[in-house]
């Protein structure tokens, strides 16, 4: 197992002819390679036993009008020390084809289909060439993220139907669920092929909520786009806005004051708390045990009212700004909040005992919806779902941000990958968040809460930032444009990577277990669709 | 069993423990009050998400928790548009959801009312003008009640619903 330097040495030995240039961006090594060598190099990084690189992000930048080229970048995380390595390649002039890496690295499957929809660049060799983001009624040739596509284009409609994979056979029928579901939840479409009760195949058809967030970012100034980042996924307000602010701060070389870092960690842990508590309750209600759901609803409401009292917003909107935090929380308020949360902990522990004392609940959550470690690794699954299947990744420990270089969060890991494991990951993370909040309250320094941004970064410079939101790893890539604007902002919520994994987790389970499996994943539809 | 009972007794009653909301900034119009008359004091609500960020959905889900408990006001959340009296629509209507919204409106039997929840449903909020957004809900279906906010607090949603109930009781008779 090795780090980025070893990886570069091994790559230079094996593929010296294909490597054009080697640089480094904000400490991350960057290799410029020839387009045709990309599949072999990426397969090497992914399968080499010493490296075991996982694909973290795949994005395209349209450099027009400055230069006529598209740049495709691949971000890998090497397994042992969790270091990043960037591979970049260019498409010049009229070139629209690029080789697909999906046959070897399955984590790239949705990224490449999204690139085709948004940029019109075709991944050659991709096994699934159907539309992803633009549903079939969008006109041909309308690729929103290209620089010659206006942000406020009024689109026409054409005729078209999404083609689902069929299973033929006696007694096999299709069940279509969505986009409007029975509960109060976001729209998404699930196509089941069932033979009796057991699910033979599940196919997802999402992106109903595509609002054009990445294009809207390109209209904003770097320091003013935080409200848009907050509304990418409403329940991950702090996660997304923090990731965006960190990327801009790296770009503009702003050093965030320590007190602001601690406050950012505090708000992030609050967000993790209220969402995990809500999820545990929701999983219980999906197995028809509504008592814990009512209690968790009460506890979640308590935390959201605490958020409202501390910051004026139940979802912690307006707390992050470029350079620090926008609202200060005095040490007395922090002390009172910690006392209140300490009172919440035994309340929640009682609930845990009540929930797991119920044999029906235990019967329904154990061995249901198993996502094995090998499938999770192949598809790049991360976050809560990944940690329940044995994927040991947590950005708070691997790439410490905000105050996590001084706090040391314990990473929860379970191996079985069933609904119970995902529930237990959430329960353990709730206790860990409460402990982290106590530590934050003890160690938070006094001082300023915001560093004013000065100057404008050079056009074309860019920065990456990663935050461990409550669902998983949120990655932002922000490239500066002319005059303090944004040329390209790539937003990746962990749901984008985890959604396809549910298609594997439900196989063999019965249809009535689908709601609890879906709830145990609890992926964001809005964060996925952008 | 005893631990459950003990917990319920120890917790006590939490209903109503939320900060009181001020009067809604969008008053109920006489037409909306007239349209709500058939339902008297109860309402069966179906929620339709046409592209919101999910915060409005979480606030609507909060209405069902023990603290807000919307069912004590006669408001019931139903699973199908065919059982609904009122459609609560959130989100700026995205290009992909436009057809689904119109279908749901047609499938909901008359009489019905439409409540636009949140800034996105009323005026598209921060997504106004985007290529993927087809304009506020009232461009596609007639809207009776508007509840502004990003997102509106559950207390504010309850206040708007109770104002609706009062308005329909006062109108005519």
Give the key terms.
heterodimer, A: about 525 residues, alpha+beta, Beta Polymerase, domain 2, 3 domains, globular, B: about 170 residues, alpha/beta, Rossmann fold, five-stranded parallel sheet, 6 helices, about 35% helix, about 15% strand
Number of separate strands of chain B = 5
Average pLDDT figure of chain B:
90
Q: So how many helices of chain A? A: 18
Biggest sheet overview of chain A: 5 strands, mixed
Beta-strand content bin of chain A: 15-25%
Explain the overall architecture.
- The complex is a heterodimer of chains A (530) and B (173).
- Chain A is α+β, with helices and mostly antiparallel strands.
- Chain A folds into 3 domains: 4-124, Beta Polymerase, domain 2 (2-Layer Sandwich); 172-205, no CATH class; 213-529, Cytochrome-c3 Hydrogenase, chain B.
- Chain A has helices spanning 4-15, 38-47, 109-119, 213-217, 226-230, 237-252, 258-286, 290-311, 331-357, 359-365, 373-378, 383-388, 395-398, 419-443, 494-498, 502-505, 514-521, 525-529, and strands spanning 19-25, 28-33, 53-62, 69-78, 83-92, 97-99, 122-124, 172-177, 189-195, 199-205, 320-321, 324-325, 462-468, 473-480, 486-492.
- In chain A, the strands form 5 sheets. Chain A has a 5-stranded mixed beta sheet with strand order 1-2-5-4-3, with helices on one face. In chain A, strands 8-9-10 form a 3-stranded antiparallel beta sheet.
- The two termini of chain A are 36 Å apart.
- In chain B, 33% of the residues lie in helices and 13% in strands.
- Chain B contains 6 helices and 5 strands.
- In chain B, helix 5 links the parallel strand 4 and strand 5.
- In chain B, helix 2 (30-36) crosses helix 6.
- The model of chain B has no long low-confidence stretch (mean pLDDT 90).
């Amino acid at each position: 197992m090795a780090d980025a330097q070893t990886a570069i040495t091994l790559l230079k030995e094996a593929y010296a002819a294909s490597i054009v240039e080697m640089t480094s961006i904000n400490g991350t090594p960057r290799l410029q390679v020839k387009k045709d060598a990309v599949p072999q190099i990426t397969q090497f990084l992914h399968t080499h036993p010493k490296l075991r690189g996982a694909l973290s992000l795949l994005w395209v930048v349209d450099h027009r009008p400055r230069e006529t080229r598209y740049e495709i970048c691949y971000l890998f995380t090497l397994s042992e020390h969790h270091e990043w390595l960037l591979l970049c390649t260019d498409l010049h002039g009229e070139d629209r084809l690029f080789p697909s890496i999906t046959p070897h690295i399955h984590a790239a499957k949705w990224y490449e289909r999204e690139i085709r929809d948004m940029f019109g660049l075709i991944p050659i060799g991709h096994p699934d060439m159907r539309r992803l983001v633009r549903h079939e009624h969008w006109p041909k040739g309308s690729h929103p993220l290209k620089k010659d596509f206006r942000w406020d284009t009024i689109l026409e409609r054409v005729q078209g139907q999404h083609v689902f994979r069929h299973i033929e056979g006696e007694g096999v029928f299709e069940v279509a669920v969505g986009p409007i579901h029975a509960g109060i939840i976001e729209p998404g479409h699930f196509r089941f092929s069932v033979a009796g009760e057991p699910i033979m195949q599940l196919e997802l058809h999402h992106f109903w909520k595509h609002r054009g967030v990445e294009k809207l970012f390109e209209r904003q100034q770097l320091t003013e786009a935080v409200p848009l980042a907050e509304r990418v996924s409403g329940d991950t307000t702090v996660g997304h806005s923090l990731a965006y602010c960190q990327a801009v701060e790296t770009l503009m070389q702003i050093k965030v004051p320590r007190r602001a870092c601690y406050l950012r960690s505090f708000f992030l842990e609050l967000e993790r708390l209220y969402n995990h508590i809500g999820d545990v309750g929701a999983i219980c209600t999906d197995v028809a045990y509504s008592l814990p759901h009512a209690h968790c609803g009460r506890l979640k409401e308590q935390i959201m009212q605490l958020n409202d009292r501390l910051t004026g917003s139940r979802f912690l909107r307006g707390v992050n700004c470029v350079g620090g935090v926008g609202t200060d929380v005095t040490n007395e308020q922090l002390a009172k909040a910690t006392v209140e949360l300490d009172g919440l902990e035994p309340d929640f522990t009682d609930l845990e005992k009540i929930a797991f004392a119920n044999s029906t609940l235990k019967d329904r959550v154990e061995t249901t919806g198993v996502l094995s470690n090998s499938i999770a690794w192949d598809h790049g699954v991360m976050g809560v779902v990944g940690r329940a299947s044995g994927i040991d990744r947590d950005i708070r420990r691997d790439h410490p941000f905000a105050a996590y270089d001084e706090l040391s969060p314990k990473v929860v890991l379970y191996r079985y990958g069933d609904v119970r494991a995902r529930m237990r990951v959430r329960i353990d993370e709730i206790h860990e968040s409460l402990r982290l909040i106590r530590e934050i309250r003890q160690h938070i320094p006094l001082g300023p809460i915001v560093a004013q941004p000065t100057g404008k970064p050079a056009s074309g410079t860019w920065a990456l930032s990663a935050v461990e939101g409550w669902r998983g790893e949120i990655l932002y890539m922000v490239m500066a444009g002319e005059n303090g604007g944004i040329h390209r902002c790539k937003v990746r919520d962990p749901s984008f990577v985890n959604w396809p994994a549910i298609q594997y987790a439900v196989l063999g389970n019965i249809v009535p277990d689908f709601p609890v499996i879906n709830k145990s994943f609890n992926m964001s539809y809005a964060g996925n669709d952008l | 069993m005893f631990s459950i009972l003990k917990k319920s007794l120890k917790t006590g009653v939490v209903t109503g423990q939320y900060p009181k909301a001020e009067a809604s900034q969008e008053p109920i119009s006489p037409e909306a009050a007239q349209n709500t008359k058939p339902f008297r004091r109860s309402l069966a609500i179906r929620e339709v998400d046409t592209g919101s960020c999910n915060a409005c959905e979480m606030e609507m889900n909060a209405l069902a928790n023990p603290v807000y408990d919307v069912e004590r006001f006669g408001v019931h959340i139903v699973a199908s548009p065919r059982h609904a009296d009122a459609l609560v629509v959130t989100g700026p209507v995205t290009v992909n959801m436009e057809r689904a919204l119109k279908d749901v409106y047609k499938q909901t039997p008359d009489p019905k009312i439409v409540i636009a929840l949140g800034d996105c449903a009323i005026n598209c909020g921060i997504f106004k003008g985007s290529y993927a957004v087809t304009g506020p809900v009232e461009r596609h279906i007639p809207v009776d009640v508007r509840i502004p906010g990003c997102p509106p607090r559950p207390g504010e949603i309850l206040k708007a619903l109770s104002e609706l109930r009062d308005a329909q009781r006062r109108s005519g008779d």
